[in-house]
Amino acid sequence: MAAPRNMRSEVDDLLSEQKTIVGIGVWSGGHRVNEQRMALTLAIEDTTTNLDFIIKAFPNEQDLKFTILLNFSRCIWRLCYSDNTGHVNNLNRPVHLPPGPFNSPHFHSWEDNRHINTSGGLPRNLLYANFLPPDLTGFADCFLWFCEQTRIRVGKNQTPILPPADRLL
Amino acid sequence: MTLLDTVSQALAGWSQPKAAGHRVIVPTNCLFAGGGIIRVIVEGGQNTFVVHDDGAALADFENAGGDLITATKMMAAHFRQDGFLVDGNGVISAPPVSLDALAPTIALVANASRSASDHLMARWKPAFRLKFKDAVRNLLEAEYPKRWAHDRTLVGKSNKPHKFDFVIDLGHERQLFFDAVVPEATAINTAVVRHLDVAATHGDKIVQRIVYDDREAWKASDLNLLKLGAPAFPFSVAHQALDRIAA
Q1: How far is A6 from A3, CA to CA, in rounded Å?
Q2: Which residues contact B212 (CB under 8 A, 6 or more apart)?
C-alpha cells in the first residue's frame, strides 16, 4: 500500500493536472439570502476528483458580485469579485503582494498561500490576496481566467451564465 | 504637513460608509482571521437603528471551505449570553439602538462577527479529517485481514470503560490497541486519557499505540502530549510500525 502523502503535495498535484468539467452545472438557491450557488464536478482523465468547484452568485446586488472557489475540503483558490468585500494582507505577506486594502475584485491563489502551514497541512484561511488583472471585468472573463490559473479546461458552452435578479428592489 | 495630517490622510484612504438602497454599509477596522475586512450594515430611521453583519461571519466561514448544517444554531448558542441575535440565515444583529449608541454598536457587531467566524472554524471538521479512520481501516484490511477489529472496549484503572478505535491480534494472547488521532484538542485529549487509564491496569498482553494523521500539520507540543498516552507513530509509516510490533 502506498504511503499517504501530505495534503499540500496532494493539492500541488491536483492543481498541476489538467482537469475537465463534467456534468451540467445548475444554480440552486436556498443557501443564504440573495445567494445562488453552482457546484461543478471536476475530473482528471475521466475520473472525478475530490475538488469542489463552486460559484456563488448574488443576483440581487446593485453591483456585479460573485465568488469562485476551489475547495479541497478547505478552500485552496478563491476569486472575490465585489466592491463590498474587502481584504487586508497581514505583515508576513509574500514580498510581491501589496498590503491592501483590497476593496475591489481580488484573488487568493494557492501559490501565494500554500506556505502558510509548514508541515504539510492545508491553510485554514487563504490569508494572502492580490488584485485581479484590470482587464478582467465581467464574470465570463474572470471564470475563464480562474480556470486557466487552476488548469481547468472549459469546453464549449461550459462557461456558466450568472442567474438574473429575481426581485425588483 | 504634521504627522497628524499625514496619518489622517492615510486613514481617509480606508473605505468610507456608503449608501446601498435603504441601508448604509460601514467598513470597520475589524478583520476576520483570514484578513477579510468586516463591514456591518446600518438600517433604520431618525432615532432607532439596527446594526447587523448581513451574514458576513457565515460567508467568511463558508469562503474558507466551511460547511456546517448547524452553523446558524451554533452561532445562536455562541451568543446566547451576549445579547446578539442570529437569524436562520446567519445574520448577526444587535437589538435596535438609539443614535448615541450607534457607533459603539457598530464596533460590537463587527467584533461579534469575527468571534462567530472563529467559533465556526474551530468546530468545523473538514471531510478529510472525518475520513482518517477510514484510511486506517483500509490499511488494516489490506495488510492484516481477519486479524483486526474496531471499537473494542477496555476498562481502565478508574473503572471507566474506554473504546479504542482498532485492535490487532498479535498472537500468544497479545493484542495491540490503538487509536487514530487527528490534530484536534478533543481527539488528542481523549486518546491520551484513555491510554493512560488503561496502561495503569493492564499487563504486557496489551500493547498500546497511537497513530496520528501526518497528512496534516501538527504542533510539537501536541505530539509530545500524545506520547504521554502511548508511543505514537505517523500514518505515513503505519505499515512498517505495525509490522515491527506484530513481528
Answers
A1: 10
A2: B180, B181, B182, B183, B218, B223, B226, B232, B233, B234, B235
Residues with Cβ within 8 Å of residue A44, at least 6 apart in sequence: A14, A17, A18, A19, A20
Within 8 A of B233 by CB-CB distance, chain A residues are none
Q: Which of B213, B21, B12, B211 is nearest to B126 (CA)?
A: B213
- Categorize the per-residue pLDDT at A5 as very low, low, confident or very high, splitting at 50, 70 and 90: low
Q: Establish if B121 touches chain A: CB-CB under 8 angstroms.
A: yes
In angstroms, the CA B6 to CA B1 distance is 7
The conformation of residue B237, written as its DSSP 8-state character, comes to G
Q: Is the pLDDT of residue A108 over 90?
A: yes
B2-35: buried (b, 16+ CB within 10 Å) or exposed (e) per residue? eeeeeeeeeeeeebeeeeeeeebbbbbebbbbbb
What predicted TM-score, i.e. pTM, was given to this entire model?
0.80
> Is there a contact between B39 and A128 if contact means CB atoms under 8 Å apart?
no
B96 and A CB contact within 8 Å: no
Kindly indicate whether the ipTM for this predicted assembly is greater than 0.90, answering yes or no.
Answer: no
Neighbours of B203 (CB within 10 A): 5
CB atoms within 10 A of CB B142: 10
- Give bridge partners of residue B116 from the DSSP assignment: none
CB burial of residue A47 (10 Å; 0-12, 13-18, 19+) = exposed
